[in-house]
Amino acid sequence: MREDGTTLSDESHDLYVYKCDENTTFSNHALYLGLPCCKEDFNSCPSIPSSLIFQRSTKENFWISTQLSSTKLTQNVDLLALLKWKAHPERVMDILGRLRHVSGEEIVKFLQDILDTLFSILDDNTDKYGPLVFQSLVFIINLLRDSKYYHFRPVMDTYIQKHFAGALAYKELIRCLKWYMDRSAEVVRQDHIQEAMRALEYLFKFIIQSRILYSRATCGMEEEQFRTSVQELFQSIRFVLSLDSRNSETLIFTQGSQPCPGPNQAPGVGPAASLALAPALGQAPPPAPGQANCPPAWSSSAPRPSPLSAALLNSFPAIFDELLQMFTVQEVAEFVRGTLGSMPSTVHMGQSMDVVKLQSIARTVDSRLFSFPESRRILLPVVLHHIHLHLRQQKELLICSGILSSIFSIIKSSSMDTSVQEEVEVMVESLLDVLLQTLLSIMSKSQSQEAGEYVSCLLSLLRQMTDVHFQHLMENFQSKEELKEFFLKVLSVFRNLMKLSIFPRDWNVMRLLTSNIILTTAQYLSPALHKNFTEAEFDFKVWNSYFSLSVLYINQPSLQLESLSPAKRNKVLDKYGDMRVMMTYELFSMWQKLGENKIHFIPGMIGPFLGVTLVPQVEVRNIMIPIFHDMMDWEQRKNGNFKQVEAELIDKLDSLVSEGKGDENYRELFGLLTQLFGPYPSLLEKIEQETWRETGVSFVTSVTRLMERLLDYRDCMKGDETENKKIGYTVNLLNFYKSEINKEEMYIRYIHKLCDMHLQAENYTAAFTLLLYWELLNWEEKLLKEFLHYPTQTEWSRKEALSRKVIHYFNKGKCWEFGVPLCRDLAFQYESLYDYQSLSWIRKMEAAYYDNIMEQQRLEPEFFRVGFYGRKFPFFLRNKEFVCRGHDYERLEAFQQRMLGEFPQAIAMQHPNQPDEAILQCDSQYLQIYAVTPVPDSVGVLQMDRVPDRIKSFYRVNNVRRYRYDRPFHKGPKDRDNEFKSLWIERTTLILTHPLPGISRWFEVQKRELVEVSPLENAVSVVENKNQELRTLISQYQHKQLQGNINLLSMTLNGVIDAAVNGGIARYQEAFFDKEYITSHPEDTEKITQLKDLMQEQVRPRQHRRPRARGGSGRTREAGAPRDASPPQEADRSVPHDEEQPLQHTLLLTVTTSDLITPPLSVCLSLSLSLSVCLSLSLSVSVSPSLCLSLSLSVSVSPSLSLSLSLSVSVSPSLCLSLSLSVSPSLSLSLSLSLSSLSHA
């Protein structure tokens, strides 16, 4: 310890080391202990004799570090002086002034002792030391606000509750605090006042505890004086807060400025000390430093928030609990209301002040005081007033939402109290309108974090409202215009709540609660809507907003209980019921109240109401049905028809179902034979009671059929279906719009949808689809509005652009014959306008198409008849048959596999017979597929000899509506010797709705024609077809259309002369040239003669020019021959003969060459001695540019004995050897050798 009573400082100390003899004993301890221990001790000691046995070692030192840890000892002189102030009472003012220089660690270590000392000084001389003690107390309290010492606050609390004994201190503390506040408008530097405001919580704790101690000691004396002083203190607090609401400028020093010394300020004493000393000295408060003698150094450009008010507001809510110890809840609430009411009402003081003000209100709401109903009745209006102001200005929305949430939480927990109804009434009057306006403003922004908070506040308020509140709310509106504005706001907010994603997707409970509150509110508001806006004062905008809300509400995804599990669905139904049904009943009730005003919502509300019927809930649908009847009835009354209802209903039905809405049960919504559900009849039954029932029934029938097609179309587009299926569904819908409903706009939309599907599948017959739109346009200058991807343009321009696109698609699809007429039409238009540049382009395009027709190879597709049988097929396929155009190179087997792949559940029927009724009505899928032959309409072109086969080939398989297939059968007993005598053909001709190709690769069979072809007629047909094939081949060689050797022609001739299968056409001779047949069938005389003529035509001399052999190949299949009937193909045989009626015996020798000197050389020898003996020789030699030799020899003596020899040699660019020998049908020899090149020979 030092002489002044403090301990050694915390540092390292250098201690002296003394020498002594080893045997020396410390007999004189006092002498040793009296030696100096360190340098400071040495300087203070008197001279030390050198004869001492202890001598200091100058070479050795001993260092020691000290650290004080004590709650009784201190190293601070000022603190020790304060604790021992009674030793020097004359220095008390200086000691108190130096307390600020004591470290915080020392103060908190001696906190209780210091506080005891301060209040002891205060009790000793209140008038003299009161301000300085107050200032010291404020300093200590603010020290504990520092986060470093914050954990010492419980020590302070314990001291106040258990150790504080200053029973008279409250008077001086109140006086000093009030004096500080009263002078806040006069002083410039307000740091000391701000510190006092920050210490307000603990100052009040000391004041209240002191008053409690005084009351205990005096049995409650001076109670009235205490209450008066507290009231005056609150008046001063309100005075401080009111300063910011004045229009005068708030003067704040700029950073770094220093005030001049005041006239009453003593040297060395700070301005705060001088200010504190003034009352104690009995002087008037000194002027603010620098007020008279210093130039102003503050900023006064604009009103700014006072730090003093901010400090006061931050501390103010913390004193409520202390006041409740001495005052009733109502009294404290009155104090607080007066204080909050004195805050500036404007929200233009600056963001920081607004935040502080609202934070103070928020802490007030969260305090224990606000939990008492009697205090809320007093405080709620002023709190709501400030929130209302900020919401009006859209300021500090997040803090305001937090305050409102706290208020609603308190009200909800106290909802059983009767006082809550009054509080809700106050909140409705003050907040409801501004809450709606705020929400509309927030929802208009794309992103806002406050939206959810304010939605919760609005829902909480509406949830607390009863019918009484709604009734008072309606009565408080001064005019219909105000009421209308309110309705539009609340309905708009509700609509936005259902449109926007306010809450996270998985907050199902919150979404259901929101829906329940909206439904309840709508039920409360409906009577007022009907009462004020129906009759003479009908307002379309309000009613339309109400209906739109109802429709949105019913279609909410969160209310579609069908998507929930059974357990969740039952839970929702138990708690809320099916809110869709409740809102639908409300909607229907309001619709009925409209009366004659219903006409205002036709056709505008047809689409929304139709959307309600798409909800998969039976009761909802059947409640809505009478509304459509009303719409039809009212338009019928007004216009004499219901065309608007019809058009709008169809348009909206299409768009809604295309969006994926509706289910299987919806097919029967407009059905003709629907059962009754609930209290409402079906639409059809209501219509049948009207005078316009005929048109009404027709309309319902059309809509029902449209629904079936739309649902099929939607299911196909939604599923993973093939392109063919999607195209089929679209064609079905497109045809319906054209033929049954005549909706041109919808028709055109589906034309382009179908075109896009074709293009995705690279099927360029999409041109036929666009032609449908092209045919609707005229070459006129009428202006067309923007539609789909077409801009605003004249009808002429749109048709021209469409023509070019169609021509382009025809070119890519190699359908040049279809593009030529369009080129001509476009050329005519260009020529009439003298647009020669475009005319030149289109003429060149047309010429290029002709070149393509003659030069490019095109494949003839196969055609297949497909029957779809069974109820499991889609509506437009069910129990119908189609003819499909196959893909390139696609044959029957491949097509059948493809169809079974598209319909994996289908069963392939193995016979061509028509299915019975059991198959048609079964719940399965049956596919019946077989090939068919096109029957072209352009017969004239096909019969012209000089028309190239490339051209004929196109007309044989294009633009054909008639297709046939033959089924052979035996009528009567089968002739075993010659089956052709009893072999009949059942020929079925299928007539399609549209020719192929067209807008689809398949079309439905419109009509079937069935005829039976007799054996003789069949023979005539087969021979005639073979003759036509020969003529075609000869013509192709004559006109050099086939470039290459004549193998194709040779083989065909060989098949005619020597048919090695089933005896050839000799069988026809045996069957039909017999005397017995001619006698028994006199009616066939003409046909027999025709058959003879055809047979003679086959052997009639025909000259033909053989072209140079350049290689190549030709068609081997008989054009137009049935693909599924074997007997016609068996008819390719030798010319039949009759020994009793011999035909003309001919010798045919033909030698043809373009140049007898140079190759090629072709020799064809045919010798017929009789109809039973036939000799045929064919020789072909070609030596340039390669060596080619072909030899064919055929000898036929009788049908049972035949000799055939064939030899073929080709030596460039590869070596090929072929040898064939046939003695009889039972013995044959064949040899074939082919080498890839001569080098491998």
Q: Classify the beta-strand content into a percent band.
A: 5-15%
The parts where pLDDT drops under 50 for at least 5 residues are: 247-305, 671-680, 1101-1173, 1182-1186, 1224-1241
Order of strands, widest sheet: 14-15-16-17-18-19-20
First-last Cα distance:
129 Å
- Morphology: elongated
Proportion in helices: 40-55%
What is the strand tally? 20
- Helix tally equals 48
Largest sheet: 7 strands, antiparallel
pLDDT averaged over residues: 77
Q: Over the alpha carbons, how many angstroms does the gyration radius reach?
A: 56 Å
Which class best fits the helix and strand makeup? alpha+beta
Q: Which key phrases capture this entry?
A:
single chain, 1241 residues, alpha+beta, seven-stranded antiparallel β-sheet, six-stranded antiparallel barrel, 48 helices, 20 strands, 51% helix, 12% strand, elongated
Give the SSE layout:
Blueprint: E1 12-19, H1 29-33, H2 39-44, E2 55-65, H3 77-83, H4 92-97, H5 104-109, H6 111-124, H7 126-143, H8 153-163, H9 169-182, H10 191-198, H11 200-218, H12 223-242, E3 252-253, H13 271-280, E4 298-299, H14 307-315, H15 320-323, H16 329-341, H17 351-366, H18 373-393, H19 397-413, H20 419-443, H21 451-464, H22 467-476, H23 480-499, H24 508-532, H25 540-554, H26 566-575, H27 579-593, H28 606-613, H29 618-639, H30 643-658, H31 683-687, H32 693-718, H33 723-741, H34 744-760, H35 766-776, E5 783-784, E6 793-794, H36 795-812, H37 816-832, H38 836-855, E7 863-869, E8 880-885, H39 892-902, E9 907-908, H40 917-921, E10 926-935, H41 939-943, H42 949-957, E11 960-970, E12 983-996, E13 1002-1013, H43 1015-1038, H44 1047-1057, H45 1066-1072, H46 1075-1080, H47 1085-1099, H48 1126-1130, E14 1147-1152, E15 1161-1168, E16 1174-1182, E17 1188-1198, E18 1201-1211, E19 1215-1224, E20 1227-1235
Parallel strand pairs: 9-10
Antiparallel strand pairs: 1-2, 3-4, 5-6, 7-8, 7-10, 8-13, 10-11, 11-12, 12-13, 14-15, 15-16, 16-17, 17-18, 18-19, 19-20
Helix pairs in contact: 6-7, 7-9, 7-10, 7-13, 9-11, 9-12, 10-14, 12-16, 14-17, 16-18, 17-19, 18-20, 19-21, 20-21, 20-23, 23-25, 24-27, 25-27, 25-28, 27-29, 28-29, 28-30, 29-30, 30-32, 32-33, 33-34, 34-35, 35-36, 36-37, 37-38, 43-44, 43-47
